[in-house]
Amino acid sequence: MAKKAHIAALAIMLTYLWCAVPGEAPAAEPAQEPPATRQRDDGMMLIGGAVIGQISAFEPVYFAYGWRGQENAKFQVSFKYQFSRGFFLGYTQTSVWDLGTESEPFHDSSYRPSIFYVMRRDRQTAWQAGYEHESNGKAGTESRSIDILFLRPMMDLGSSGRYRLILAPKVWAYADKSENPDIQRYRGYADLFVLYEMQEGFGIFDGLQLSASARRGMDKHYGSVQVDLSYPLGKVVYAYVQYFSGWGETILDYNRRLPFQVRVSVMLARW
């Protein structure tokens, strides 16, 4: 598993270096549109956050504090790199930190490099397809890893400038799950992401964003749901509350259900 994680990381590094080799000077770019419009035209209608060249936020970036019998924290960093028109490299790391134990160890971390293509049909619809590796970097009995091929339609049903309503189901096939051959019982083959954001005309609630991600395992008693609520405190900082319930908050615990968890956070990038 560790070898596959190293290969995935090496592939991302080599692709980045190849794309960074100087070539002919690019043609002059047209006048820049507002950031939100440019991000949507990139094909990632779900994603907000800052854009620095060809690197931008991918999934939310946050550090959250919670209590479940003892103190714990969960943090996530995530970014994507556009190396060709429609083609992206993505990387997301999510870690759960046991703050209440004597040595304060990390309970588990998920490392998710990916490569994917985005095809935009119009300003309200896009398709995302690609490959994703997920592993926790551990050895022995605690080693976990999967490789998937996925497809994700993304539909914006909102009113431009007033509110956003996003539906984004994701379906996948397991290319490799040898370290956890029964993971489909708990994670299944699909999830559903729904987002609602109040943009203008809601008074003090302008900027409030609510999203939920749910999946159901092949066995009907297994599955999970995560609900995220965020509110802007400034241009780049958000107050954030996260709720998780179900099986497998981390890939180490994919076949284990812990009590529900509520965490509060400061978020730096959101959907």
Describe this structure in words.
11% of the residues lie in helices and 52% in strands. The protein has a single domain (2-22, 55-269), classed as Outer membrane phospholipase (ompla), Chain C, CATH 2.40.230. The longest helix has 19 residues, at 2-20. With 271 residues, it is mainly beta. Strands 3-4-5-6-7-8-9-10-11-12-13-14 form a twelve-stranded antiparallel barrel. The protein is globular and about 50 Å long. The chain is built from three helices and 14 strands. The two termini are 30 Å apart.
Summarize the helix and strand pattern as letters.
Answer: HHEEEEEEEEEHEEEEE
The total of beta strands comes to 14
Class inferred from helices and paired strands: mainly beta
Compute the gyration radius: what is it?
19 Å
CATH superfamily: Phospholipase A1
Could you name the CATH class? Mainly Beta
Strand order of the largest sheet: 3-4-5-6-7-8-9-10-11-12-13-14
Shape: globular
pLDDT average, as an integer? 84
Task: Describe the structure using short key phrases.
single chain; about 270 residues; 14 strands; mainly beta; Outer membrane phospholipase (ompla), Chain C
Strand-helix topology:
Elements: H1 2-20, H2 35-41, E1 51-52, E2 55-57, E3 61-67, E4 71-84, E5 87-98, E6 106-122, E7 125-135, E8 145-156, E9 163-176, H3 184-187, E10 190-198, E11 209-216, E12 223-232, E13 238-247, E14 257-269
Antiparallel strand pairs: 1-2, 2-4, 3-4, 3-14, 4-5, 5-6, 6-7, 7-8, 8-9, 9-10, 10-11, 11-12, 12-13, 13-14
